[in-house]
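RETRY 2/3 - previous attempt timed out on the joint model. Re-submitting the same 309-residue input unchanged.
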Amino acid sequence: MPPDEEFKKKYQAAKNHFERVQVCIREQRYKIWLRADKPNLNSAEFVNSILNLPITHPCTYKKRKSGRAGAKFVIEFKYSISIYGATTKLYFKGFFAEDWTLKLEIQSLRDNEEV
Amino acid sequence: MEFCIYCETDSMVFGKTKIKVGRETFETEAEHCKKCKKVAISPKLQKEIDEWALQFTKSIFELQPYFTKDMTNKICFFANKFNLSKSELMKVCTTFYILEMTKIKNFKTLRIEVLAEAQKKHRGDRTKICVPIKYQLFKKVGLYANVWNLEYESNVMEEAVQFCMTVLDNQVAKVEESKKQELVHFVENHALAS
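RETRY 2/3 succeeded.
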């Protein structure tokens, strides 16, 4: 799906890549990687909570190992969410594809991992 | 082939793929990885899956919680009292537990205390009960299992039923009386509607 002008403006106005991640989530321009045999059908809850993080949230970037089109780096960060009385630590990994869609995966972290 | 964010190889293709949703399979065309078998789900595709799963009148998921004989008797007792089947009562308890009990202040501590108490009281061999559930409840149960690191979705129902039975049995002094009443009303209202 090619990006429309309004989305392009918001994406380009973002101050950093983390804010671009938030723009993609807000504008529903993302795809989340799930297991086909046992998909986590609640992943949107984990994705949407990224919108509550500040744009200064610490991220790391690494060069993509392969692939032609899209951004040449992978963005990673850790965050936590509180839901149903529990606080869960999560790990996010994503990259911007050629059509500016954010492609991501989210994994749960062990309790002893720092966020 | 394109880049797969999970396995970080060029194994991503677009085409027909199958996504398992409970006992059913959702067939669609989407990006999927030939190596790690992950599928890329957009909010639009997720909405399509939700709409498709909700159209089933039958239950497409089945939980298989294990309970001791004592606990099963307790479930039967309260099911009769509220004029519900065992399955219905367990589903009502699970819904109330996830949506309401988790809002209690200090739920984390209370959960440990109540479940430890219930497990101490109800020891012995456990037998399996099969409880078919619908998509909406399965999603909630799945999320709860995920955030509390429970291995199986059935563990959520085991926990919820043990907790609610202990509360209904008036054995949890730490749960406010108002919450106990809320649970009773919730079950009664469900019995009225079912």
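The first strand of chain A starts at residue 30 and ends at 35. Closing ticket.
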